[in-house]
Amino acid sequence: MYKKLCSRCMCMSYSSSNLANWLCPHCANDLTEEKAKKVDHSINIPLMNRRLDQQMGINTYRQLSKKIR
Ligand SMILES: [Zn+2]
User: Fold this and answer.
1) From ligand 1's centre to the CA of 52, what distance in Å?
2) Which end of the chain, N or C, is less packed with Cβ atoms under 10 Å?
3) Is 34 found in the same domain as 17?
4) How many angstroms separate the alpha carbon of residue 11 from the centre of ligand 1?
5) Rounded-to-integer distance, Cα 8 and Cα 13, Å
6) Which domain covers residue 2, as residue numbers?
7) How many whole angstroms from 34 Cα to the centroid of ligand 1?
């Protein structure tokens, strides 16, 4: 697991390998030449899962509020 900090939008992105072309998921900036930092799974996977849960919660909330309107 690797992470890179986008120099354009300053968002962190994550990938399982740093060999392939690497585009920022937030602004599509090409991060292939940026230095990748290795990520310790035991620390970051639960954090990422929590963020994913939060995002899914937000999406569910948005869908619900659309139905109400
Ligand atoms: Zn970016």
Assistant:
1) 18
2) C
3) yes
4) 6
5) 12
6) 1-38
7) 12
